[in-house]
Amino acid sequence: MIKLIKSTFHHEAQTRRALADFILHQDLLSMNGQCRRFEETFAARQGRRHAVFVSNGSVANLLLIQVLVNQGVLRRGDRVGVSALTWPTNVMPLIQLGLEPVAIDCALDTLNISPQNLGRHVSGLRALFLTNVLGFCDDLPALRALCDDHGVVLLEDNCEALGSSVAGTLLGNFSLASTFSFFVGHHLSTIEGGMVCTDDDDLYEQLVISRAHGWDRNLTPDRQQRLRTEAAVDDFHAKYTFYDLASNFRPTEINGFIGNRQIQYWDEIVDARAAHFARFQQAMAGNRDVHQLDLNHMDTVSNFAMPVICRTPELAEKYRAEFEAAGVEIRPVIAGDITRQPFYRRYVAESTERPVARLAHTNGFYFGNNPDLTEDELTTLCDLLGN
Ligand SMILES: Cc1ncc(COP(=O)(O)O)c(C=O)c1O
């Protein structure tokens, strides 16, 4: 069986042994130095000024939107563009916090929002919470320029695209802030985990506050002092003063420890995923039953999972059956057309057509791209793709 998720960690056995040893010998397991070190290493590796480690990618999204609402950057009722092909917890925080998602269709050759598609919706938007779908992107520099021209705040959900780059820049670095997931099966696993990255000092401070109850304990002493002075808080109450709307989104030292080990394999993981993707794409190139991807504009395609979008529903049925008969675990492309999900229909009233997301929903599926795929497994997958 070629499973969607093949392993919990890259270099699984060594990581598990080191983790067992860490747990046996470490006194404090709640958020502390391991988490801080992982944040610093991750920020440096991603090329962002700040990184805030949280318990998963979904709450990375929720925390980011909560803080932007707290700051007044986003206000109740604002329209926020999202990718029609995305994960539910990219969209749910918007609804939960009183914003209005606007699902924008993707382009067939990138499965991501294109400048043309954004152009149709951009004038009414306050922000765009773009998903870099499956490790791919469309013309991100042009999308950013379009957002800048229209005063739209660009945010990136980069949970599926760690290590991908375009125009010499890593995805996740085109926006005010970007989010990452470290769930098992993602590029870098801490079992559960997520990150918010930004270059903005104020946003960073608010993310740290709202990650943990709304208090100031994880800020630097000078930042704490400034807040305490502004709010006229005395020493006795300082540690139990809550500055803004928050929750508890903290990770543990266990997640931090794993992150510090796995991040050493960043290049290995990204290179393997990119190399597998190149082979899959080549194998699929002559196959006229499926739509071809065009990602030549990207420098690195650190692919999350390999999508197959068939030309007809009948072909989709045939290919899904063939993959399953060959022992390949497959699933819908992310969550399919997000506007067809019951939660979306329940809370968002709109009827715009999104033909490409719909096509991916009805005629598509994906299988996992794991850095540990064996040569035999790669051959099986390529044979299936080539028809
Ligand atoms: C685009 C996107 N956003 C957010 C998430 C949520 O991440 P997590 O599973 O860590 O909560 C995922 C998870 O797969 C995702 O693909």
TrEMBL record:
Gene3D superfamilies: Aspartate Aminotransferase, domain 1, Type I PLP-dependent aspartate aminotransferase-like (Major domain). It comes from the Bacteria. GO terms for molecular function: transaminase activity. Pfam families: DegT_DnrJ_EryC1. Keywords: Aminotransferase, Pyridoxal phosphate, Transferase. SUPFAM superfamilies: PLP-dependent transferases (SSF53383). Its cofactor is pyridoxal 5'-phosphate. InterPro entries: DegT/StrS_aminotransferase, PyrdxlP-dep_Trfase, PyrdxlP-dep_Trfase_major, PyrdxlP-dep_Trfase_small. Belongs to the DegT/DnrJ/EryC1 family. L-glutamine:2-deoxy-scyllo-inosose/scyllo-inosose aminotransferase subfamily. This is DegT/DnrJ/EryC1/StrS family aminotransferase.
